[in-house]
Amino acid sequence: MLINHEYIYKILEETKNPSNEQIKDVLKRAKNREGLDYKDIAILLQAEDENDLKEIYSLAGEIKKDIYGKRVVVFAPLYVSDYCVNNCVYCGYKRDNSFNRRRLTMDEVAQEVKILEQMGHKRLALELGEDPVNAPIEYVLECLDTIYKTQNNNGEIRRVNVNIAATTVENYKLLKEKGIGTYILFQETYHKPTYDKMHPKSLKGDYNYHLTAFDRAIKAGIDDVGAGVLFGLADPRFEVLGLMMHNAHLEEKFGVGFHTISVPRLQPAKGVTLENYPHLLDDKMFKKIVAILRIAVPFTGLILSTRETPAMRKELLKYGVSQISAGSSTGVGGYKEREKGKETKQFETNDERSPIEILKELLSDGYIPSYCTACYRKGRTGDRFMSLAKSGNIKYVCEPNALMTLLEFTLDYGDEELYKKSLEIIDKEVENIEREDIKTLTKESMEKMKKGQRDFYL
Ligand code: SAM
């Protein structure tokens, strides 16, 4: 089996109560970028001592700064259908929940997209439940067409990542043809006995079919895949090692692993309380996991959603998170309904701030919020992206692109306060661009933007 359960149990047992020296040794090798094996990761996962944890956070922070600089990518989810044939125990969309289900018409999709564009979004994650009759692949493809062609004044969506249920190579090919960004699918849990319990009698109930979805997606030509675990279902240490094995499998077979990893924690939802979940992830373990993922897979983006509070998001940005959602609604038609004050959510969220409020905090904390979609539009995907990232050369394009998209947001959607904060950081950071040719190009593009031109990227 791709996820070797016996082996995971064995190394978790062998690395119980690691000594201070063992942890220091792993961190030293991680610092030298020597690559960590499963046992090393298990050692870090079982570190409990506060001083050891501080060292883990500090190394994760250093790695993050080295690779991602001050950039934080911002996006929003778009829910288009809550029809679902599955009965996932933890999910508000489960078929046993009775409520008025619906899918958006194309006019409604366009309406949602316009609201998102008005918030300044350029990157979306398309979300829907699994229902081959009420929301077949043709519906998803139509949504993608609608999203990409819906323009609002100076706004347009430039990259759509797609989170739909595991499907066939043929269907992944169709998604690829529509120009999707990352194909996202959370394994939910790598622990098969828990997976079986959480997905009773349903299409999603086939653990192996779900686990091999990325193999089919990559075979179909999709370069970037985004993984995730729904933390709270099974032992989080098992889940992290499961993620690492899955990633290693893709690296071995296709030469490139996950483009991103999401770290959702279980939230209350319709018909879902958190009472019967013995493995809920507490804050301490959660922070440790984010830091360890940053250390273990430095070049894989880490995504944090509005399931988390503003305080937790602020803290985890320090240890490794590189992408956050902002201004999200997790209900079908939720952006329009929110305006009317009646939104039905897939699960509860804990950061209700608007993108502009979030951007202001990011800027105050010294980050550069980025709406960049350049890599995907320039064909820097899959192994081409990874080799650029690993050589360190990616920063020559990421930094200017982040600054240019921040300026674009500020000009189009900012208020006076944002303008002041953004320009302060943009003017300073543009001078720090190392390559003179790129610095000049960036400055010239920014002047053109101030005169009304848009969408510059390297
Ligand atoms: N239908 C797709 C699938 O089967 O993968 C998309 C799923 S859903 C729209 C997106 C994700 O929300 C799920 O993969 C799951 O991890 C997460 N989710 C479901 N219920 C949740 C809950 N109660 N709390 C937090 N996240 C939840």
From TrEMBL:
Coiled coil: none
GO MF annotations in UniProt: 4 iron, 4 sulfur cluster binding; biotin synthase activity; metal ion binding
Name of a matching Pfam family: BATS
Listed name of the protein: Thiamine biosynthesis protein, ThiH
UniProt biased composition (Basic and acidic residues): 335-350
Lineage: Bacteria, Bacillati, Bacillota, Clostridia, Peptostreptococcales
Residue ranges of every copy of the Radical SAM core domain listed in the record: 68-307
Presence of keyword Nucleotide-binding: no
Keyword annotations: 4Fe-4S, Iron, Iron-sulfur, Metal-binding, S-adenosyl-L-methionine, Transferase
Organism of this sequence: Romboutsia ilealis
Region (Disordered): 330-350
The UniProt record lists the keyword Metal-binding: yes
Top EC category: transferase
Entry EC no(s): 2.8.1.6
GO terms (BP aspect): sulfur compound biosynthetic process; water-soluble vitamin biosynthetic process
Necessary cofactors: [4Fe-4S] cluster
CDD domains documented for this protein: Radical_SAM
